[in-house]
Structure formats: structure tokens, C-alpha cells
Amino acid sequence: MSELILHHFDPSPFAEKIRLIFGLKKLEWRSVDIPMIMPKPLLTALTGGYRKTPVLQVGADVYCDTSLIALELNKRFPKPDLFTDGNQGLALALSYWSNTVFFNPGAGLSMGTNADLPEPILKDRSEFFNFMDFGLLQEEIPHLFTQLLPHIDLVEKQLSDGRAFLMGSSAGWADINAYFVIWMLRANVAPIQEMLTNCHSMDAWEKRMQDIGHGKRSELDAGNALRIAKASCPSDTEGVDSADPLGLNEGDKIIVEPDDYGKVPVSSELIGLNRQTVSIRRNSAETGDLNIHFPRAGFRITRC
Ligand SMILES: N[C@@H](CCC(=O)N[C@@H](CS)C(=O)NCC(=O)O)C(=O)O
Fold this sequence. Notes:
This protein is an alpha/beta fold. Helix content is 43%, strand content 19%. Strand 7 (266-273) and strand 8 form a beta hairpin.
């Protein structure tokens, strides 16, 4: 099997989710360091324009969005199961909680409590995070804490019966989704440390999460990642679901874009469609043929 290549940057909380999967499954992987802000020409050469972090590359297959990357890694490396005790639906559903109502106030606080961030980062993120009004961030700080702390309480309550992990005795996708926001807060939001002093169950759980580690990482140059894509053949897809409500056919020219923020459209030829995934085929001189895969949930597809 081709190497697992993660395109990410170290401070990225969403990338931390995937690094923890590598740790949980004790996987070897290559790390391509990408810029934190646009432009990202060597990443978008692979994704057709999608700019969010992280992106997983396996040969000439490119997987966008952490929910899809998690499913793909669990399919390729089933043990230990990310979805503990048969809780796949529940754990995946929890990612919609942590990616939105839990992450969004945390992201606002990461920006608002660090007013000395470099201007290019502030400019990039104020365009990217369309759910934040950067002009109001300072006065919103107390409110943002009130939107964050109830979710921290949920995590503390879930762990307060002494269980090791959120769903029981083993770590899985539910833990990773709750943990990535707390990981971001600990790194970026100084006042949070004091607010969490009474969260004793969560504190012990955070240490267990850190112990999972990141698997076996080695660095890879972005140019070499493109050369690996070019030297590889994209995988076969399972075709287009004829019962899909969009009524699309294989070969149709479509546009895929995130429906929340970071809305950069990616256009190309449809090669695979089911209830969970949409796959397109792109070709460029730099990469050769590529399959790019996106989740259906949270993405809008339109006919070109
Ligand atoms: N739904 C996406 C969200 C990813 C996301 O928002 N990532 C942040 C970084 S942690 C991002 O893309 N920031 C802007 C950038 O990296 O250009 C996922 O689950 O992968």
C-alpha cells in the first residue's frame, strides 16, 4: 500500500485529530508541512483548490475533511477500531457537535485573546471564518467563554463516573473529537487554564489522550508528495448512485465546495457518488490523474 501522507501544520487542531488516529493505530506516516494561510500552491495542486487543513494523500488519492479521513483510515486499518463498542454512528454524529458549537467559540477565543497575531494571519482568518465578526471579537470574549464552558462541562460529566474514555474503556473517535477543541484552547487561550482547574476527570483523560501519541512520523517535502501522486494510479471507485437525489451521472462536470466556511469551489468530472462520499477526477501536468474525495455531509455539489 502507498504511504500515508498528511498535509498539515503542527498547530492545526483539526490535524491533531488525524495525528491521534495515527497514534491510536500505531501507523507510520509522512508529514508535509503546509502554509497556515493562502496561497498554498502545492496543496491546491493536489486538491483542485480546497484549502482546509488537513488533507490525506495516499498515492494518487486525496481525502479532504477529517470525517472522511477518519472513515478511510479505519477502513484501511481496522484495528483498533476508531468506533469503539459498535458506536460508529454516535461517534461520527458527535463530530458535528465538536466541529461547530464546541469548536467555533474556541476558534473565536483563539483569535480574540491573541490580539498580537501577525496581520497576514488575522487577514486570512477574518476572510476564512465567516461565522466570526473580527470587528466585534474583543467585546465578544466573555460571551464566547459562556458558549464554550457548557460543552467542557459535558465532557467532564461524561467522564465523572471514573471511565477512562468517553464511550468506556477504549479511546476512539468520540474522544478525539472532544479532545481536539480542548487541545486548541490549552495551546492558545491563556485564561482557560484557570477555568479548567476543577475539571479533574477531564484533566486525567487529557493525559491519557496525550499518551496516545502520533504514531511514527517522518517529514516529506511537498514537491516529493506531488511526484508520488504522479507516479501512482488512482484507486477504482464504486460508481455513481443512480438513486441519488441530485440525479447526477458518471462523467458529469460538477463543482464541490464546503457549505460552511473556507468555501473554495473545486470543479471536475464526477467519478463516484454515494450517501457518504463524492469523488472527482482531476488531471494536471504536475500530478497526473488524481481522485479527490469529499464527504457529502457539509458539502454542496452543483452541476457546472
Ligand atoms: N471540516 C473540516 C474543517 C477543517 C478546518 O477548519 N481546518 C482549519 C485548520 S485547523 C483550517 O483549514 N484553517 C485554515 C487553513 O488551514 O487554511 C475538517 O473536518 O477537516
